[in-house]
Amino acid sequence: ELPPSEFMQVADSTWLVLSVISNGREPPGCQATGVTKIARSVIAPLAEHHVSVLMLSTYQTDFILVRERDLPVVIHTLAGEFDIYKEESGESVPVTCDDVSNGFLKPKPAASPTLHPVQSPQTRFCVLTVAPDTLPAIATMLIDVLFYSHSPPWDAATGSQDLDSITFFSFSLIEGYISIVMDAETQKRFPSDLLLTSSTGELWRMVRIGGQPLGFDECGIVAQIAEPLAAADISAYYISTFNFDHALVPEEGIAEVIQLLQQRQESGR
């Protein structure tokens, strides 16, 4: 319904949302959360079958977006590990490989994925939620942060932002559940009694993936970040955006994360 505008870009693909629901069979002692929980079972297999994904981690759970045209490949790839359902008129209906066999195309071999550079600003972030009935109390501040707060100065000489400090604010409202990612300084502007976080109140650091906009056709971008972190049992929230991907990791583990990802880049050369 948004009017056409020279200021608005729209990706040409239609995307479908996959929500992965655990059945409680995770091995005991597995503490990783976020995208690392599904790195081996979902992210890696889809990358191996050349399916491009967008990730949206929220306070409550993780969502994987796949292009509608890739759905037959997605179902064939994941059906051996998961029970797959589609939503019809509010009901969950089982899906089998036979339902999409006519549209299944065996993926063509693809070149090895590009190893994208990663950058880690010094900014510290919070992953939060808020009760929906308290949203009006912070609406004015939300609007100000979303639309009127200033971004870091753009460096015309290098064509990039100063990544010592990055502006990043994510607000999602999904089925009534609100999830917010904001930097620790911005959090101070909001009433502390309305913002809910985990009992430990941990802070997160960000790893931004890509030296230039990534596009949507390349596969394996999420996997090349998620797999090393999963192997090291490091929690991570992952948020794909129109231009770049962002992984949030616990602040105390940022040095290990950078080392792991640098080793990944060096081994891929």
Automatic annotation (TrEMBL):
Residues 116-199 form the Cytosolic arginine sensor for mTORC1 subunit 1/2 ACT-like domain. Pfam families: ACT_7, CASTOR1_ACT-like. GO terms for biological process: negative regulation of TORC1 signaling. Residues 11-78, 201-262 form the CASTOR ACT domain. One of its GO terms (cellular component) is cytosol. InterPro entries: ACT-like_dom_sf, CASTOR1_ACT-like, CASTOR_ACT_dom, CASTOR_fam, CASTOR_mTORC1. Keywords: Cytoplasm, Phosphoprotein, Ubl conjugation. One of its GO terms (molecular function) is arginine binding. The keyword Ubl conjugation applies. It is found in: Cytoplasm, Cytosol. Belongs to the GATS family. PANTHER family: CHROMOSOME 1, WHOLE GENOME SHOTGUN SEQUENCE, CYTOSOLIC ARGININE SENSOR FOR MTORC1 SUBUNIT 1. Forms homodimers and heterodimers with CASTOR2. Interacts with the GATOR2 complex which is composed of MIOS, SEC13, SEH1L, WDR24 and WDR59; the interaction is negatively regulated by arginine. Interacts with TM4SF5; the interaction is positively regulated by leucine and is negatively regulated by arginine. Functions as an intracellular arginine sensor within the amino acid-sensing branch of the TORC1 signaling pathway. As a homodimer or a heterodimer with CASTOR2, binds and inhibits the GATOR subcomplex GATOR2 and thereby mTORC1. Binding of arginine to CASTOR1 allosterically disrupts the interaction of CASTOR1-containing dimers with GATOR2 which can in turn activate mTORC1 and the TORC1 signaling pathway. This is Cytosolic arginine sensor for mTORC1 subunit 1. The lineage of its organism: Eukaryota, Metazoa, Chordata, Craniata, Vertebrata. The gene is Castor1.
